[in-house]
Inverse folding.
């Protein structure tokens, strides 16, 4: 039996077991995917014992993403670009390999929902400059966009991000987030504002280009204030749940040997779980 898990501290809230459990059943795979609470001081020991525990690998969530990246011996570019890993597996030689699949998850879902996002040669607007922002900025740069504008509450963090990614990334002040995004091809919220209904981004979409796509990586609630506001202005929107589902795909394939499909049924299953919570 093949085994994988998700590790974090705390870990109770994770929806990864429901996602991977759905696929294991769907593909009739003899495998398991569980949650493991791992304290910060236990991470190194835990990762060193994956093989002994019979684990093919694991997902990694807060607060272990940076440690996972550091402790891995093989790192995909996705993880190196972000400096953090959310997916680990052991290769044929038993080496610990790391990837950051948030980039894949975000770009795959955006392209699925709005495959024409790249038709306009307009800048991309990113709200936030944390780990999620880095993963998404990297995705757009890899896709070949000519300009990414980063708006963050604390400018120093946006400047650090821009310094890491080079001249295609431009730093704007937080207060300019509406004004300097009216021509954007895509606007993405990567901050935690709107999570569980807390706070509001106060975007003014009045003068936005009608083809702008507005997306939010927050998926609790499924329809955030940002998404609702953008819809009211007639803009196309991309929710955060799809990114969560798609970021799980590469890990499942590494551990269980099948590239799984994000079905409408899976989407509805996790959406119902979020709405019930
Ligand atoms: P993640 O790894 O999920 O990106 P993070 O690294 O903690 O999480 O980053 C959180 C992001 O949300 C940051 O960009 C943060 O802005 P600061 O860098 O200024 O802290 C942003 N954020 C959190 N609360 C915010 C708020 N109330 N208003 C604006 N931005 C906020």
């Amino acid at each position: 039996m093949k085994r994988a898990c998700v590790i974090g501290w705390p870990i109770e809230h994770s929806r990864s077991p429901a996602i991977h459990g759905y696929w294991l059943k769907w593909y009739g795979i003899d495998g398991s995917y569980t949650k493991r609470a791992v304290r910060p001081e236990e991470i190194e020991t835990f990762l060193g014992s994956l093989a002994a525990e019979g684990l093919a690998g694991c997902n990694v969530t807060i607060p272990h993403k940076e440690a996972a990246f550091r402790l891995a011996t093989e790192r995909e570019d996705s993880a190196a670009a972000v400096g953090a890993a959310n997916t680990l597996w052991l290769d044929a030689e038993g080496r610990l390999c790391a990837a950051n699949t948030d980039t894949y998850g975000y770009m795959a879902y955006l392209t699925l929902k709005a495959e024409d996002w790249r038709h306009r040669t307009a800048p991309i607007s990113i709200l936030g400059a944390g780990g999620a922002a880095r993963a998404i900025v990297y995705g757009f740069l890899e896709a070949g966009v000519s300009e990414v504008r980063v708006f963050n509450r604390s400018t120093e963090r946006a400047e650090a991000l821009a310094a890491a990614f080079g001249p295609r990334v431009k730093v704007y002040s937080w207060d300019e987030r509406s004004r300097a995004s009216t021509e954007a091809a895509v606007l993405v919220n990567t901050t935690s504002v709107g999570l569980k209904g807390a706070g509001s981004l106060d975007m003014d979409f009045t003068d936005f280009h009608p083809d702008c796509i507005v997306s939010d990586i927050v998926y609790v609630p499924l329809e955030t204030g940002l998404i609702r506001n953008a819809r009211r202005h007639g803009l196309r929107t991309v929710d955060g749940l799809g990114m969560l589902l798609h970021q799980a795909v590469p890990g499942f394939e590494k551990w269980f040997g099948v590239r799984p499909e994000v079905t409408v049924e899976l989407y509805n299953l996790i959406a119902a779980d979020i709405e019930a919570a």
Summary: The radius of gyration is 19 Å. The mean pLDDT is 97.
